[in-house]
What does this fold into?
Amino acid sequence: MQIRKYNTADLEQMIAIWNEIVEEGIAFPQEETLTPQTGEQFFASQSYCGIAADDNSEVVGLYILHPNNVGRCGHICNASYAVSSACRGQHIGEKLVMDCIRQARETGFRILQFNAVVETNIHARHLYEKIGFRQLGVIPGGFRMKDGHYENICPYYIEL
It folds into this structure.
């Protein structure tokens, strides 16, 4: 498994993985899937995009890293992670998060904050807590699931 910066040859697989998460409707706030054009623009607009590639150079996961805010809060970053459903349970997410933390530090960010971790996403929450992220509280009904019901979200942060 290799974690590295994405390149344009990775875009088709990255878009497919991203869209899989969006279509599941239980983790990302986005409702619109990416096209080849919007995907290229979306990933290029990030501060950093990392991918996890297997031994056959297939993209099996990715993350995006970008500022969480601007100006006086521009030192706080945000990230999102996506792992192909066919490859979940192999600790790819942990490798992506650890690389993201390193990249965030190198980029000059001081805090990594997750705004909307769905409370029922126990695998992600367990991973973040294991790594040392702190939960900021609970926002009741902060995430509308694909089926229309609302779930709580739990913001998390870690000092870099």
Notes: Residues 8 and 40 are 8 Å apart (CA to CA). The domain at 2-159 is CATH 3.40.630.30 (Aminopeptidase). The helical segments are 11-24, 36-44, 92-107, 122-131. The chain has a mean pLDDT of 97.
